Amino acid sequence: MTTFTLPxxxxxxxxxxPPLEWSNAPExxxxxxxxxxxxxxxxxxxxxxKDNAPCALFxxxxxxxxxxxxxAVGFGAIYDAGTLQIRVRDDxxxxxxxxxxxxxxxxxxxxxxxxxxxxxNSVTLERPEVFxxxxxxxxxxxxxxxxxxxxxxxVRYFTLGRMNALRAGFSAQSPTGEKCTAVFSEIRYHPGAxxxxxxxx
Length: 201
Known about the structure:
mainly beta; Jelly Rolls; 8-stranded antiparallel beta sheet
């Protein structure tokens, strides 16, 4: 299994599923190309179950931390996305996505899976890149996005319950397309918690 390190990320990353291509580019970043029909989603109706999107995961050493990155996606097909991932086990995970909507607009989407997936579309954006962030405490998780990397908007505040052996990381997906490349730059990891999840500070 291929393992690698990223500047600022504690510990080694490994691939949950291997990508078509990947590189440490741009400098201190990560580029991931997902292949055709790749996704993480368990349909509540039972009609669709995919867990094959390439994801680079690491084990955070801290019970409270912030993980953020600038995410740029080469959108081509509906639901193409670059995502931040939190994974406890195959049926307990969450992802914060910069995703191509059915209306062909870049959109912030969050998915929380506890046995089945709870899918929530948020805002559309008029730009090909955005900052995404995960804030974790021992009991909770919060997802935020930012257009400038300074002013953060909350997307979702939730819990996955007991989060033993939690891993976090970066993923690309192309559920309806042939491939999709997501580029993660300005990757940052900080131990500690936010003062207020809702304000993002």
